[in-house]
Design goal:
Elements lengths: L6 E6 L1 E4 L6 H13 L6 E2 L23 H4 L3 E3 L5 E5 L2 E5 L6 H25 L6 E4 L12 E8 L4 H14 L1 H4 L3 E2 L13 E2 L7 E6 L6 E5 L11 E6 L8 H19 L11 H9 L7 E3 L5 E3 H19 L3 H19 L9 H16 L6 H9 L9 H7 L9 H7 L9 H10 L4 E5 L2 E4 L7 E4 L8 H9 L4 H9 L1
Parallel strand pairs: 3-16, 11-12
Antiparallel strand pairs: 1-6, 1-8, 2-7, 4-5, 5-6, 8-13, 9-10, 14-15, 16-17, 17-18
């Protein structure tokens, strides 16, 4: 029986400012440090991280890369259990672990609001700083891409080869509803800047089927084997082939459908849908706005991305009915079916649900109104402005405010998630400890806290079970502990 899925997202945000001396690394650090303000800078614990360990069974010998702390970059663990830090040249927000798809959407949106507030705080407290802009997108339009990653808890007993076989066709075809849309072409083999519109921002940057890299020769299936949990029981499937979604329905579909497919893989319930050329198929699907282009399978058949998704959907429908009949799973199926039906009959009818459609209709309206050619730089600017996190500037935000895209969250839910962790994963324990005992938390990571209890030795609190440390498990324990030393003493007893 498949294990319960726990998931989260990591989003690298695009950062920009006017002026030739703009330094994205320094600006990202200033942004995060200013937002953190009086929050104590709790060190991120890199000791147990192993980003080079490969799911295929090896770990390359390589010197440890400098950490954010080594480089003096901002790195903050937030009271909601999330991590907010500088990753390369971008501010990155990693949501706390969630077990509800809807709650993940809420916490992902909370990340957008945190980035918006960071901009406001920099403008208020450092008025001489060049005006910064933040975009929740995946490309600078000049051949550089930055990631939006998903993470899923997976059963260690599931052969990794099964994951590769069954998940690759799903990732290639799910672009039809997860894509954020992009004006232009940036693949190395293509004419850079060519004025086409495609479903996804990331497809142009993927060159191989399976691999460990995340910034070069990007693979459809990433093999990083860094579970952030009990390694004997779990994998963390690190998914790098996804766009940064503004539309909440698209985000809900991306996480919810993938979680269901992973459960079916663990229970060995999927047919073999292996593609003949997955990377080529990935590019073909992204550049087909009609969603009717067929891609060849290894068995000789040819199916469109929508037809492939129908295959996964039908198996998921039976799986939910027989094995996992939960209300949220039923909602995932309902929205998945509605999206596929719309894509099959009229893709452009899904402008309230899907980013690539909402943005395309927006661009087309401006193009027709102003008589613009698709190569006009004004349209490129509109493409980028769709992703601006500022609610008074972002074009997606204007669509949301006017009810032209469907929301699944409320402003109140998102506001609460800025400070409050999920109550049903270990993120609750992490967030509550950081909120209650900030001066005693020496370091934190996803699977442990290091606590200073006033003695010579620091104490590590392991958190290797993602579904332990919930409100139900630890609320009374935390309430009974007047300080961190008392908490550790109670845990040890």
């Amino acid at each position: 029986m498949a294990i319960e899925k726990v998931f989260g997202t990591e989003t690298e945000y695009g950062i920009a400012a006017a002026g030739a001396d703009f330094n994205p690394v320094l600006s990202s650090s200033v942004l995060i440090a200013t937002y953190a303000g009086s929050l104590r800078r709790i060190r991120w614990d890199y000791e147990q991280e192993s980003p080079l360990r490969d799911a295929r069974g090896f770990e390359p010998l390589q010197a440890r890369e400098p950490s954010d702390e080594d480089l003096g970059l901002a790195n903050v663990v937030l009271p909601n259990g999330a991590r907010y830090y500088v990753d390369h040249a971008h501010p990155e927000y990693s949501t706390p672990e969630c077990r509800s798809v809807r709650e993940l959407v809420v916490h992902d949106k909370a990340g957008e609001r945190i980035l918006e507030r960071s901009l406001e705080e920099v403008a208020r407290s450092l008025p001489s700083t060049p005006k910064l802009s933040i975009y929740k997108n995946n490309s600078d339009g000049k051949g550089n891409s930055y990631g939006t990653h998903e993470n899923y808890l997976v059963d260690r007993l599931t052969p990794f080869g099964d994951i590769v076989r069954d998940l690759t066709p799903f990732f290639v075809s799910r672009q039809v509803f997860t894509g954020a849309g992009k004006l232009g072409a940036e693949a190395q083999w293509d004419e850079r800047g060519r004025s086409i519109y495609q479903l996804t921002q990331r497809a142009d940057f993927f060159e191989t089927e399976v691999g460990l890299e995340t910034t070069l020769k990007r693979p459809i299936i990433n093999t990083r084997d860094e579970p952030h949990a009990d390694p004997d029981k779990y994998r963390r499937l690190h998914v790098i082939i996804g766009d940064a979604n503004m539309c909440e329905v698209a985000q809900f579909l991306k996480i919810g459908t993938t979680a269901l497919v992973l459960k079916m893989i663990e229970d060995a319930l999927l047919p073999d849908l292996t593609l003949r050329s997955p990377v080529q198929a990935l590019h073909t699907v992204s550049r087909d706005l009609t969603c009717t282009a067929a891609v060849p399978l290894a068995d000789g058949r040819e199916l469109t991305a929508v037809q492939l998704q129908w295959e996964y959907f039908e198996h998921a429908r039976k799986y939910v009915e027989r094995e996992d009949d939960q209300p949220e799973n039923r909602e995932v199926l309902e929205r998945w079916e509605a999206a596929l039906s719309g894509l099959e009959t009229d893709p452009l009818s899904l402008h309230r649900e899907l980013d690539w459609v909402a943005k395309y209709r927006l661009l087309e309206a401006y193009r027709v109104r102003d008589g613009l050619d698709w190569s006009d730089p004004k349209l490129r600017a509109i493409d980028l402005q769709y992703h601006d996190v500022r609610r008074d500037k972002g074009l997606y935000e204007r669509l949301a405010d006017s009810g032209k895209v469907e929301r699944l969250t409320t402003d109140e839910e998102v506001e609460r998630a800025i400070m409050e962790p999920p109550e049903d994963t270990r993120a609750y324990f992490r967030g509550r400890c950081i909120a209650r005992f900030p001066d005693s938390i020496a370091a934190a990571s996803w699977d442990s806290l290091i606590v200073d209890v006033g003695t010579d030795a620091l104490q590590r609190i392991p958190m290797r079970e993602p579904l332990r440390g919930t409100k139900a498990h630890v609320e009374e324990l935390l309430a009974a502990s007047e300080d961190a030393a008392a908490l550790v003493a109670r845990l040890q007893s």
